[in-house]
Amino acid sequence: MAIDHPSFGRIDDNRVIIFDTTLRDGEQSPGFSMNLDEKLRMAQALADLGADVIEAGFPVASKGDFESVSEIARVVRGSVVCALARSGGKNDITAAGQAIAGAERGRIHNFISTSPLHMKYKLRMEPETVLEIITAGNVAARNFTADVEWSAEDGSRTEPDFLCRCVEAAIKAGATTINIPDTVGYATPEDMERIFSMLKERVPGADTVIFSAHNHNDLGLAVANTLASLRGGARQIECTINGIGERAGNAALEEIVMALRTRQDQIPYTNGVQSEKLLKVSRMLSTITGFDVQPNKAIVGRNAFAHESGIHQDGVLKNAATYEIMTPESVGWSKSSLVLGKHSGRAAFRDKLTALGYTIGDNQLNDAFERFKDLADRKKVVYDDDIVALVDDEVRDHARIRFLALDVSAGSRRPAEATLELEIDGELVEATATGNGPVDAAFNAIRSAFPHEARLALYSVGAVTEGTDAQARTTVRLEEDGKMVDGQGADADTVVSAVRAYVHGLNKLLVKRARSEPEALPA
Predict the structure, then answer these.
(1) 362 annotated as belonging to a binding site for a ligand
(2) This prediction's pTM
(3) Is 250 annotated as a binding residue?
(4) What is the pLDDT of residue 335?
């Protein structure tokens, strides 16, 4: 059976719409805030990836959110640009409609809670009032666009009869997509399949709309619940790159796409995502946010196609299918593990960056190349991961404070001393400080050069690759007035990597300071 949709036209029943909410739900993760330029880069990358819908933000939440949704709507082509709004919010629908006005195709996604728990304690509303708001919100949204989505927040814990009434009201009021979120990650796959099957069978008009699944990962079931939702009749999947999102995150786009591609025998549906670009977009998000995916992350983790066991290695050498259910190339990995050397030129370096999924300007290229040459002089072997680590430092857009140079003296007989050079808002600032060790001295020098009250909540060091000459990758977490950010840095010198990480985190904190903090948003 096919459905006529205002944004996509005639949609066959085997077509799955990929709705990416990295820029909305994903950005609500602590420490994951992005500035306007970064959001635009991510939105364009998502459109290039083939995401059908990009949820760009919650326009009424802040001026920054409104601006980013408006700019994404104006610039991005190829994907539907979606804005979030509360069904009963006083100005929500209007703000969302105005923000998507410049979109090639725009959607308003409005929501209200429907579970007994949320209605009693969060909304403090009776069910009949909620039904009235659902109708009013969707009617208002249709004044701005024919593409309207409605969500039953905490839908997986909503009483079945009332959920049916809510969905029926939304369809009658003009919603063209109906989303049933597992907002708190409580459901099991059997729950989600049953909910969608019930709605498809019981609700009048259910055959005229697209049903959507939005599953959170609190029990580690988000992807499983999403695939079960497809069996129940959902044909839109709401997901994020790297699975980022509130609390334990959302269903990971890359995992869902590759499950659909790999298990066509069990999940015979199509989508428009170009899977070969998954790793590139995953790395872009990690670079922008400063959060790497864990090594064993499915699809995009650096160990996803690594084999250490001798038995596994023997099998892969004879036939890769013995231990690999998909090819590395199908998601954007290269079989090459070594990269260039100290005699390599700028053109070859740029070529390698392109192969690794980076597109950077000349100034950033020059800085990255100089760091690469310096690293190649100090390391026997330079790996792809080494290149990724140093380039990530150069392509981040947080730029009020830049690291320039560091000299440290330390030993067992006297306090460590660090002399630091930073560029702050375009001006050179020098500072010298002592501390209980070289890292403490370097961090004290940063505080002297740029006074601030942020508290160091985490300091963690790991190696990018193996060996005593490996680059160090440092993560720091800064906390200020309830705002928390993570910064990352890499360098062959552990103290320099720590300073780079601290500066990165401090820049992210400044971005957070500059933005109006939105109220708690829905999942």
Answers:
(1) no
(2) 0.80
(3) yes
(4) 62
